[in-house]
Amino acid sequence: MYLNSFNKVATQPLYPGANHLITRILQEKPKLHRRGFFVPARGRSAITVMTEDEVFKGPRQPGDAMALQAECALLQSLAGEDMGLVVPQIITVAKDGSFFGMERLRATELTDARLRQLAPEEQDRIARAIGTFNARLASRVPTAPAANIVTRASVAAVAENDTLCYELGGAVAVLDRLVAYYRQQPERPLMVLHDDLHPGNILYDDATGELAIIDLGAGRGLPPEHSFGILRSSYGVDIADKAMAAFMAESGVTIRGVDLDIYAGLQTLISLWQYEPQEVYGVWAIACPSIEAALDRVAQLPPPRQSTTPRPLATR
């Protein structure tokens, strides 16, 4: 984190892209010239500059601009909508579309430890609100094109990596079962959901009970198993299951817990292999027994009878 003031940015360079973003902000909002700001740690695709009452986001690389513009458009489309919790409102949009600014919320990061200190009924309310938010987000944004629950390219990339399969040793049989399971899954419409429901993106105000979600740039076409799988890894099975129940009641889409287990297993492997390959082998060896048990359970279940597209609001 860098503490600074806008008028010193030219003499105290930060990191690539940050100074350019701050210069662009000053061009659009010269009244900020002597205001203080800070720059949090860089995200994968965005640079963030925060003032006392506004959060500005700009692309980290030129290729990230389109995703940020989509996030801005999504936030604008949700203005005034009842989403079940608070979503930041857009304040500033650069004339050239190179950045946008949104209100800085007073709520702060809701860690799992902090959540567990709240009364059980408040924990339940928060879980339901998160599930309701995802359902309403899916209903307001057109569904993505039909696709397999796990992209066939991702499955093939793992299955055809001879080195990875060799290093996994006895886990290869479980990997083969995962690949076979997902290759049998039908294609279905994907819903636009928040794809990164971790504590850094879920905010809570202890004084008012206000609950908010940020980083809607993470909203993209996904199977619901992805979104709620991340929620489960962040807050545990009980919170995720209550959020899923609220999502299913609001949307009419069914999610099976066993599908969450299986999806999480394959996605964990794919993500580790792509971003932290040195961690794959130890994590996968630990995860294999639970994944194999989930595959055994799902083999005994009938195919789910479910709607795969969220109900429009008018029918609720």
CATH arch. level architecture of the largest domain: Alpha-Beta Complex
Strand arrangement within the widest β-sheet reads: 3-4-6-5
By CATH's scheme, which homologous superfamily of the largest domain applies? Aminoglycoside phosphotransferase (APH), C-terminal lobe
> Which class of the largest domain in CATH terms?
Alpha Beta
- Major sheet: 4 strands, antiparallel
- Number-wise, the strands total 12
Low-confidence stretches: none
The SSE order reads EHEEEHEEEHHEHHHEEEEHHHH
Helix content: 40-55%
**Can you tell me the CATH topology of the largest domain?**
Aminoglycoside 3'-phosphotransferase, Chain: A, domain 2
Number of domains: 2
Radius of gyration: 21 Å
Termini separation: 45 Å
C-alpha geometry: globular
User: Hey, roughly how much beta strand do the residues contain?
Assistant: 15-25%
The number of helical segments is 11
Classification by helices and strands: alpha+beta
Mean pLDDT: 79
Explain this structure.
The protein is of the alpha+beta class and 316 residues long. The protein folds into two domains: 2-104, Phosphorylase Kinase, domain 1, CATH 3.30.200; 109-315, Aminoglycoside phosphotransferase (APH), C-terminal lobe (Aminoglycoside 3'-phosphotransferase, Chain: A, domain 2), CATH 3.90.1200. Helices cover 46% and strands 16% of the residues. α4 (120-140) crosses α9 and α8 (224-235) runs antiparallel to α9. The relative contact order is 0.11. The mean pLDDT is 79.
